[in-house]
Design a protein that fits this description.
single chain; alpha/beta; Rossmann fold; six-stranded mixed β-sheet; two-stranded antiparallel ribbon; 34% helix; globular; DUF1194 domain-containing protein; DUF1194; vWFA_dom_sf; VWF_A
Length: 242
Protein backbone atom coordinates (compact mmCIF):
# COMPACT_ATOMS: atom_id res chain seq x y z
CA UNK A 1 0.00 0.00 0.00
CA UNK A 2 2.85 2.40 0.81
CA UNK A 3 4.52 1.65 -2.53
CA UNK A 4 1.34 2.52 -4.42
CA UNK A 5 1.11 5.83 -2.56
CA UNK A 6 4.81 6.74 -2.93
CA UNK A 7 5.10 10.50 -3.33
CA UNK A 8 1.45 11.19 -2.54
CA UNK A 9 0.81 14.65 -1.12
CA UNK A 10 -1.11 14.90 2.15
CA UNK A 11 -2.11 17.82 4.35
CA UNK A 12 0.15 16.96 7.29
CA UNK A 13 3.00 14.67 8.29
CA UNK A 14 2.71 14.10 12.05
CA UNK A 15 5.24 12.21 14.17
CA UNK A 16 3.80 11.28 17.57
CA UNK A 17 6.83 10.76 19.83
CA UNK A 18 5.86 9.25 23.18
CA UNK A 19 7.99 9.07 26.33
CA UNK A 20 9.03 5.54 27.29
CA UNK A 21 11.80 6.43 29.75
CA UNK A 22 12.11 4.78 33.15
CA UNK A 23 9.83 7.35 34.81
CA UNK A 24 6.95 6.05 32.67
CA UNK A 25 5.46 2.86 34.10
CA UNK A 26 3.47 0.28 32.15
CA UNK A 27 0.10 1.81 32.98
CA UNK A 28 1.31 5.27 31.97
CA UNK A 29 2.64 3.96 28.66
CA UNK A 30 -0.73 2.32 28.02
CA UNK A 31 -2.51 5.60 28.72
CA UNK A 32 -0.40 7.33 26.06
CA UNK A 33 -1.05 4.60 23.51
CA UNK A 34 -4.75 4.44 24.30
CA UNK A 35 -5.00 8.24 24.25
CA UNK A 36 -3.77 8.44 20.67
CA UNK A 37 -6.18 5.71 19.60
CA UNK A 38 -9.05 7.48 21.38
CA UNK A 39 -8.20 10.75 19.64
CA UNK A 40 -8.45 9.09 16.23
CA UNK A 41 -11.96 7.87 17.10
CA UNK A 42 -13.10 11.42 17.80
CA UNK A 43 -15.58 12.74 15.20
CA UNK A 44 -14.03 16.23 15.23
CA UNK A 45 -10.59 14.85 14.43
CA UNK A 46 -11.99 12.67 11.66
CA UNK A 47 -13.80 15.65 10.20
CA UNK A 48 -10.62 17.75 10.42
CA UNK A 49 -8.67 15.10 8.51
CA UNK A 50 -11.25 15.07 5.72
CA UNK A 51 -11.56 18.87 5.60
CA UNK A 52 -8.06 19.60 4.31
CA UNK A 53 -7.25 20.23 0.64
CA UNK A 54 -5.95 16.67 0.24
CA UNK A 55 -8.45 15.12 2.70
CA UNK A 56 -5.64 13.07 4.25
CA UNK A 57 -2.74 13.11 6.68
CA UNK A 58 0.00 10.61 7.52
CA UNK A 59 1.16 9.69 11.02
CA UNK A 60 4.03 7.76 12.55
CA UNK A 61 4.57 6.79 16.21
CA UNK A 62 8.01 6.91 17.81
CA UNK A 63 8.86 5.53 21.25
CA UNK A 64 11.84 7.24 22.88
CA UNK A 65 13.83 7.28 26.10
CA UNK A 66 17.64 7.62 26.38
CA UNK A 67 20.01 8.92 23.71
CA UNK A 68 20.47 5.41 22.32
CA UNK A 69 16.84 4.28 22.50
CA UNK A 70 14.37 5.38 19.85
CA UNK A 71 12.03 3.01 18.03
CA UNK A 72 9.71 3.56 15.08
CA UNK A 73 6.75 1.74 16.61
CA UNK A 74 4.25 2.64 13.87
CA UNK A 75 5.70 3.32 10.40
CA UNK A 76 4.12 5.96 8.21
CA UNK A 77 0.40 5.31 7.99
CA UNK A 78 -1.97 7.10 5.64
CA UNK A 79 -5.25 8.36 7.13
CA UNK A 80 -7.65 9.22 4.32
CA UNK A 81 -11.02 7.92 5.46
CA UNK A 82 -12.84 5.84 8.08
CA UNK A 83 -11.36 2.52 6.96
CA UNK A 84 -7.73 3.66 7.11
CA UNK A 85 -8.29 5.48 10.41
CA UNK A 86 -9.92 2.41 11.97
CA UNK A 87 -7.02 0.25 10.77
CA UNK A 88 -4.55 2.68 12.34
CA UNK A 89 -6.46 2.60 15.63
CA UNK A 90 -6.22 -1.19 15.69
CA UNK A 91 -2.47 -1.08 15.07
CA UNK A 92 -1.87 1.58 17.72
CA UNK A 93 -3.98 -0.37 20.19
CA UNK A 94 -1.64 -3.32 19.79
CA UNK A 95 1.66 -1.46 20.02
CA UNK A 96 4.04 -3.09 22.47
CA UNK A 97 6.49 -1.05 24.48
CA UNK A 98 9.91 -1.37 22.84
CA UNK A 99 12.11 0.73 25.15
CA UNK A 100 12.21 1.68 28.84
CA UNK A 101 15.72 3.03 29.44
CA UNK A 102 16.20 5.28 32.45
CA UNK A 103 17.23 8.57 30.88
CA UNK A 104 15.24 11.25 29.07
CA UNK A 105 16.87 12.37 25.82
CA UNK A 106 14.54 14.84 24.15
CA UNK A 107 17.28 15.97 21.77
CA UNK A 108 17.68 12.59 20.12
CA UNK A 109 13.91 12.07 20.14
CA UNK A 110 13.70 15.17 17.94
CA UNK A 111 16.69 14.11 15.85
CA UNK A 112 15.32 10.61 15.30
CA UNK A 113 11.90 12.03 14.41
CA UNK A 114 13.51 14.34 11.83
CA UNK A 115 14.95 11.22 10.20
CA UNK A 116 11.51 9.61 10.24
CA UNK A 117 10.13 12.66 8.43
CA UNK A 118 12.94 12.48 5.87
CA UNK A 119 12.04 8.88 5.07
CA UNK A 120 8.30 9.44 4.72
CA UNK A 121 6.81 8.06 1.50
CA UNK A 122 4.38 11.00 1.60
CA UNK A 123 4.82 14.71 1.01
CA UNK A 124 3.38 17.64 2.94
CA UNK A 125 4.13 21.30 3.44
CA UNK A 126 3.24 21.00 7.13
CA UNK A 127 5.48 18.68 9.14
CA UNK A 128 5.12 18.37 12.91
CA UNK A 129 6.96 16.46 15.63
CA UNK A 130 4.72 15.98 18.65
CA UNK A 131 6.82 15.31 21.80
CA UNK A 132 4.96 13.88 24.81
CA UNK A 133 6.90 13.61 28.07
CA UNK A 134 6.86 13.83 31.86
CA UNK A 135 10.43 15.02 32.47
CA UNK A 136 13.26 17.31 31.46
CA UNK A 137 16.02 16.54 28.99
CA UNK A 138 18.83 14.90 31.00
CA UNK A 139 20.75 12.72 28.55
CA UNK A 140 22.40 12.90 25.16
CA UNK A 141 23.51 15.78 22.93
CA UNK A 142 22.53 19.42 23.17
CA UNK A 143 18.77 19.92 22.97
CA UNK A 144 19.02 23.47 21.62
CA UNK A 145 20.90 22.29 18.54
CA UNK A 146 18.20 19.80 17.58
CA UNK A 147 15.24 22.11 18.14
CA UNK A 148 16.90 24.87 16.10
CA UNK A 149 17.74 22.36 13.38
CA UNK A 150 14.07 21.35 13.22
CA UNK A 151 12.93 24.98 12.97
CA UNK A 152 15.51 25.77 10.28
CA UNK A 153 14.19 22.86 8.23
CA UNK A 154 10.63 24.11 8.43
CA UNK A 155 9.54 21.46 10.95
CA UNK A 156 7.39 22.45 13.92
CA UNK A 157 8.11 20.81 17.28
CA UNK A 158 5.12 20.84 19.63
CA UNK A 159 5.02 19.36 23.12
CA UNK A 160 2.59 17.75 25.52
CA UNK A 161 3.84 18.21 29.08
CA UNK A 162 2.55 15.62 31.57
CA UNK A 163 2.74 17.37 34.94
CA UNK A 164 2.47 14.38 37.25
CA UNK A 165 6.06 14.77 38.54
CA UNK A 166 6.90 18.43 37.88
CA UNK A 167 4.26 21.14 37.92
CA UNK A 168 6.35 23.61 35.90
CA UNK A 169 7.28 21.18 33.14
CA UNK A 170 5.07 23.00 30.65
CA UNK A 171 7.15 26.16 31.19
CA UNK A 172 10.34 24.19 30.61
CA UNK A 173 8.95 22.68 27.41
CA UNK A 174 7.90 26.16 26.28
CA UNK A 175 11.41 27.55 26.73
CA UNK A 176 13.55 24.55 25.83
CA UNK A 177 11.66 22.12 23.58
CA UNK A 178 9.14 23.63 21.18
CA UNK A 179 10.31 25.27 17.98
CA UNK A 180 9.10 26.39 14.59
CA UNK A 181 6.18 28.35 13.26
CA UNK A 182 3.03 28.04 15.37
CA UNK A 183 4.66 25.77 17.98
CA UNK A 184 2.79 25.33 21.26
CA UNK A 185 2.66 23.36 24.50
CA UNK A 186 -0.39 21.39 25.65
CA UNK A 187 -0.75 20.34 29.31
CA UNK A 188 -1.93 17.16 31.01
CA UNK A 189 -1.99 17.51 34.80
CA UNK A 190 -1.44 13.76 35.17
CA UNK A 191 -1.43 10.67 32.99
CA UNK A 192 -5.21 10.10 33.28
CA UNK A 193 -5.61 13.54 31.66
CA UNK A 194 -3.46 12.55 28.69
CA UNK A 195 -6.39 11.28 26.64
CA UNK A 196 -8.14 14.66 26.57
CA UNK A 197 -4.89 16.58 26.16
CA UNK A 198 -3.66 14.59 23.15
CA UNK A 199 -7.09 14.94 21.55
CA UNK A 200 -6.96 18.74 21.92
CA UNK A 201 -3.41 18.80 20.66
CA UNK A 202 -3.97 16.63 17.61
CA UNK A 203 -7.16 18.49 16.71
CA UNK A 204 -5.32 21.80 16.79
CA UNK A 205 -2.43 20.39 14.74
CA UNK A 206 -4.66 18.82 12.11
CA UNK A 207 -6.93 21.85 11.82
CA UNK A 208 -4.04 24.29 11.92
CA UNK A 209 -5.87 27.02 13.79
CA UNK A 210 -3.72 30.19 13.89
CA UNK A 211 -2.12 30.52 17.32
CA UNK A 212 -3.84 33.85 17.96
CA UNK A 213 -7.20 32.06 17.74
CA UNK A 214 -6.38 28.92 19.75
CA UNK A 215 -7.40 29.18 23.42
CA UNK A 216 -6.29 27.12 26.38
CA UNK A 217 -2.69 26.31 25.49
CA UNK A 218 0.60 27.69 26.65
CA UNK A 219 3.25 29.63 24.84
CA UNK A 220 1.53 30.51 21.60
CA UNK A 221 4.62 30.48 19.36
CA UNK A 222 8.14 29.29 20.06
CA UNK A 223 10.93 31.86 19.80
CA UNK A 224 14.06 29.73 19.80
CA UNK A 225 16.61 32.31 18.67
CA UNK A 226 18.88 33.66 21.40
CA UNK A 227 21.46 36.37 21.86
CA UNK A 228 23.79 36.35 24.86
CA UNK A 229 21.65 33.67 26.47
CA UNK A 230 18.47 35.75 26.50
CA UNK A 231 15.34 35.14 24.50
CA UNK A 232 14.44 37.74 21.93
CA UNK A 233 10.88 38.95 21.69
CA UNK A 234 7.81 37.85 23.61
CA UNK A 235 5.75 34.71 23.68
CA UNK A 236 3.50 36.29 21.04
CA UNK A 237 6.28 36.72 18.47
CA UNK A 238 5.70 34.75 15.29
CA UNK A 239 8.28 33.78 12.71
CA UNK A 240 8.49 31.57 9.68
CA UNK A 241 11.31 29.05 9.67
CA UNK A 242 13.50 28.77 6.61
Amino acid sequence: MIAADQGRTVDLLLVLAIDCSYSVDTQEYDLQRQGIAHALRDPEIRQAISAGPYASIAIAVVQWSSATSQVLALPWTLLDGPASIDAAIARIGGLKRATRDGATAISTAIGYSLGVLDRSPYRAVRRIIDISGDGRHNNGPDLEHFRLTAAARGVTVNALAILNEEWTLDLYYKDKVIAGFGAFVERANAYPDYRDAIRRKMLREIRYVPVSQAPGTLSDVATPFRANGNRKGSKHLQFTAN
